[in-house]
Amino acid sequence: MAPIVIYHNEYSPLSSSVVLLAKYLKVDFEVKKIDLLAKEQLQDWYIKLNPQHTVPTLVDNGFVVTESKAILAYLANISPKGSSLYPTDPKKRSVVDSRLYFEATTLFPRGAQLGRPVIYDGKTEFDQKAVDNVLEALGWLNDMLKGKRFVAGDELSIADFAFVCNVLNFYNLNAPMDRFPEIKRWFQQFKSFDGFEEVNQGSKGLAQILKKFLSPSLMNFDSTLARLSSVSDFISNQFYLIRTNKFQLGFDFASSKSYSKMAPITIYHNEMSPLSRSVIFLAKYLKINIEIKRIDLVAKEQLQDWYIKINPQHSVPTLVDNGFILTESKAILGYLINSVPNGASLYSTDKKKRALIDSRLYFDATTLFPRSGVLVRSVMTGATEFDATIKQNILEALGYLNGFLKGNKWVTGSDLTIADFALFSTVAMYFYLNAPMDQYPEIKRWYEQFKSFDGYQDNVQGAQGLANFLKSKVTKGF
């Protein structure tokens, strides 16, 4: 049978993680290098495969998967050796998913924020705040590994492959890894893996590129790691920056609501967070027995010791189910569908359909939601109008989503999935921000379908409240 094709660049830790896993699983695959410096990813033939023009991209006999974590899951699902790396037990799998989303939305973006200003903006030193953010994320990873052989427990999983290629970059950039003994212990286990030295060479190449731009005396990784101050408390995975204690959404939200009569799952929630709203929306649609406990982000309740004990990243949402704790909204969505009989249809077990759902979930997690977060953050830090580049990036992401929906009732095809709930909750705000949604007829058609869903009104009320706040702070909107 024709081999799987992986479009790859050795400088990308996301791409390298896929190649490393494929070699570990002994998958029959062919690597085709994409020369990012020569902008090969912008050629028409590649954009037809991957409109976001990123690496990696997988092609399996005409079936195309983008988003590295979705590709990792797909490779595990199609390989006989892969089942142990991505367990079917709902709780074990949800922990793996939570780690994957942590890497995708926290550790990797923080690492990228180190290098981007050096390569593209001419900086000759790492920004100190970016360094501290990386070290904080590594600290969280170190804590995840305490008492565990691998990142999700005692068994190797696809999450380990995602992390190791990212962590490798920090070793090659002379980060103070002695601060993180659990990471060092965990990392040593991969040095004998087939393909490790190959991805290490790619990582070293990236480090050498960065070092060419950096002043030798300014490799300032060695900094004091401090908790974010009151001026820079981030809401929901660091994207929403609060500078005032007068944030008002314009409506009241009860501190605790429950649905159904059985012992409920507890969801710690804040209505301004689209990530949090997506979880509540899905739970209500599935009629899951939940109790909502509101976290007052403005009052910094997420930084209280009791909350940090259950969620060290102090983000929302957090799920607690009879002592089982889960963070990362997309992992929670996946867990919820396993809680009820009617959830299975929303997260297909068909390998290719599941890969598309995962790809759309990661698109929201790593592209659409972060770009939305940059917009909100700019206003929270004093902008009086929406920056043109920020708007352009958001409209580009909405264009990608509009493209996904062409010819499809829902974001992955003819069936509603958990990816629709995630993306709807991010998109909803733009309908109240006077964004030019008429440019996206497929999104408008798709959006209309949710209006009859239980939980729709609560979701859009949160989106509208956040939009109204933003509009009150700017003199010129979209």
UniProtKB/TrEMBL annotation:
Record domain GST N-terminal: where: 2-83, 263-344
GO molecular function: glutathione transferase activity
Entries under Pfam families matching the protein: GST_C, GST_N
One record GO biological process: glutathione metabolic process
Domain GST C-terminal, chain residue ranges per copy: 89-213, 350-474
The protein's Enzyme Commission number: 2.5.1.18
Alphabetical keyword list: Transferase
Transferase listed as a keyword: yes
Reactions mediated catalytically: RX + glutathione = an S-substituted glutathione + a halide anion + H(+)
Subunit structure and binding partners: Homodimer.
Family listed: Belongs to the GST superfamily. Theta family.
Protein name: glutathione transferase
Organism this protein belongs to: Culicoides sonorensis
Gene behind the chain: CSON010973
